[in-house]
Amino acid sequence: MIQIRWKVFMWNDEIVEETRKVRDEYAARFNYDLAAIYKDLKEQQNRAEHKVVSLPPKKPVLLPQTKGS
After folding, report:
1. Is 9 within the bounds of a domain?
2. What is the mean pLDDT of the chain?
3. Which residue range forms the structural domain that includes residue 25?
């Protein structure tokens, strides 16, 4: 019998940490109220000079089943 041990290594990613910090600061401005955050984001979108494109949803792809599933 072969035993495999998995060890999870965590590392600090400066970019991820900065992104999380900015996201938390932004949410804190609205007291973490999702409706208020949504309203602010929609207002930013309406003020933006670039065109917003909505694409139709993609059809799901069915994967072939394998034995035992």
Report:
1. no
2. 88
3. 14-47
Convert the pLDDT of each residue in 34-56 to its tens digit. 999 999 999 999 999 988 888 99
CA 17 to chain centre: 14
- Residue where the block lists tokens 């007291």: 31
For the record, the structure tokens of 66 come out as 């394998």
Q: 45 Cβ partners below 8 Å, 6+ apart?
A: 52
Number of domains in the chain: 1
For the whole model, what pTM was predicted?
0.59
- In a domain? residue 60: no
Largest CA distance in the chain: 63
Q: Which residue has the tokens 């999870």?
A: 8
Residue 34: how many CA atoms within 13 Å on its side-chain side? 0
